[in-house]
Write a structure and sequence with these properties.
Helix 3 runs parallel beside helix 4. This protein has a six-stranded parallel β-sheet with strand order 3-2-1-4-5-6, sandwiched between helices. The chain has four helices and six strands; from the N terminus they run E-H-E-E-H-E-H-E-H-E. The chain is of the alpha/beta class and 181 residues long. The radius of gyration is 15 Å and the shape is globular. The structure holds pyrazine-2-carboxylic acid and zinc ion. Zinc ion (ZN) binds next to loops.
């Protein structure tokens, strides 16, 4: 059984430069994330990919009183993955209920149970955006009892100040930052 999982957070077209809710520099992560996918796959890790998968009328959209432009509407090109995922990737769709925002990969998805059932003890997290979905996912990973590493060379935030604050908060919550090679 795999003792480790790589969790790739929201590497989707709408979060890339040119997309509906761009994270600056996120496209530069694509080759790094693809390398991590291959590396962890060779190590026998479980590969998990989360996707923001909103219904048309999601509460997080400005049209519905939320903070964000319309993005990652399920089934649209903006919601497509931009990294190369192996066929046996566990895809976790999140924020799928129209009236509920959900940033964490563990929020209402059953991911913790699936990982525990598969023998996973340690998770490595990469993707976007550092201060939103990466932060919530890493924080919940610790709360769910996983040894949690953040792949610092494969995450990006929207706002540098908020990203820094999120990294400090995660570190004090017990998330272990891993610099790149
Ligand atoms: C995200 C803002 C809105 C994220 C998702 O993936 O970090 N951020 N929806
Ligand atoms: Zn969203």
């Amino acid at each position: 059984m795999p003792a480790e999982a790589l969790i790739v957070v929201d590497m989707q077209r709408d979060f890339m430069p040119g997309g509906a809710l761009p994270v600056p520099g996120a496209d530069a992560l694509i080759p790094r994330v693809n390398e991590y996918i291959n590396l962890f796959r060779e190590r026998g890790a479980m590969i998990v990919a989360t996707r923001d998968w909103h219904p048309e009328n999601h509460v997080s959209f400005r049209d519905n009183g939320g903070p964000w432009p319309r993005h990652c509407v399920r089934g649209t090109p903006g919601a497509d993955f931009v990294v190369d995922l192996p066929e046996d990737t566990l895809v976790i769709s999140k924020a799928t209920e129209s009236d509920k925002e959900a940033y964490s990969a563990f929020d209402g998805t059953g991911l913790a149970e699936i990982l525990h059932k598969n023998g996973v003890k340690t998770v490595y997290i990469c993707g976007v955006a550092t201060e939103y979905c990466v932060r919530a996912t890493a924080s919940d990973a610790v709360k769910n009892g996983f040894e949690t590493y953040l792949l610092l060379d494969a995450i990006r935030g929207i706002t540098p100040r908020d990203e820094m604050r999120a990294l400090e908060e995660l570190r004090s919550a017990g998330v272990k930052p891993l610099p790149g090679p």
